[in-house]
Sequence to fold (404 residues):
Amino acid sequence: MAEWVWEGRTRAGEVRKGVIQAESEKDAHLLLRQRNILPDKVRAKRKGLAIKLPGMGGRVRAEELVVFVRQFATMIDAGLPLVQCLDILSSQEPNKYFKSVLTDVKESVESGMTFADSLRKHPKVFDSLFVNLVAAGEIGGILDTILNRLATYIEKNVKLVRQVKGAMTYPIGILVVAGGVVFALLKFVIPTFEKMFADFGNAKLPTLTQVVINASHWFGQWWWAVIIGLVAFGYAFKQFISTERGREIFDTALLKFPIIGKLLRKVAVAKFTRTLGTMIASGVPILDALDIVAKAANNKVIEKAIYFVRDKISEGSNMADPLAKTNVFPSMVVQMIAVGESTGAMDTMLQKIADFYEDEVEVAVEGLTKLLEPIMMVFIGGIVGTVLIAMYLPIFSVAGNVQS
Fold:
């Protein structure tokens, strides 16, 4: 889809100009005529040279998006015109990248595009969920209400992601520290002890000590192969999960993994119900909502299950029965959704489920962190303790012989 700069006249003779999206120049002429504009000039929009400098960024953080949405909703609710709101917010935006995006959105709206279509041009900032909710708000005349719902959704989603990242950060940090400790011991500490043991003569070293020294020799000789092997494994793993089948195998294994699997399943349920509830409450059709929710799942197993439910609903089924057949979502969730369907309060029920499972995730993360802390401490202590014992065994042996 290309962008075309146009200049033309309305039926009343008023001169207009702007930018329009179309596959070709011919399509651009047709679209303009459909809008009752007689085009005089239509040319392809020149793409400027975009240079990213360090510190300028190239992304919009969720926190910045929430601030924008909240302020935008307040302005719309106060009765300010859409273009004026975008002009004010873009002029005060400190993030240079986000500022350029908002400026482009404002220019697109001025040229005659809808607000939702203007946002759709920037999928890296405004995802399909955001765009579809805005489109529903524009059609229903409740854009300020939709924007407030969006802000709440983004805030809760950020909190959920932060909790999961917090649970993963601790063990990853400990593993990095453990790797650094092992590297230092094998590369620097053990060779020093080995030189000292050489001064003892040809005395036979204890088995544990000899094993550790042999490991140090091997690492000193092949450390570069270890690094290359880790990089190669990381690349191969990335390639594997980039395939459809590989991603499905990995995601299935994650959901079945002890402790972590239960946590990820709760996160998936919370995200699914929160997103679907927000979209249904905003007036997005159920099939469109499920399609967007499936794409945002970030887990092939969950995505496959949601698409299965969507297909069954399109055939005339209710939502609860196919949801139960997937064996992905807990029975409590299925039963509550069934109640929501029967009472006509699906959006409210989904939001209640999301609240419950977000609390469950918080509790699970705290429990996981408390469980991992002693395990990781024992892990590092075991490595360091084994090396220390191995290095001091010959010294104890020599001290015993001298005493005898």
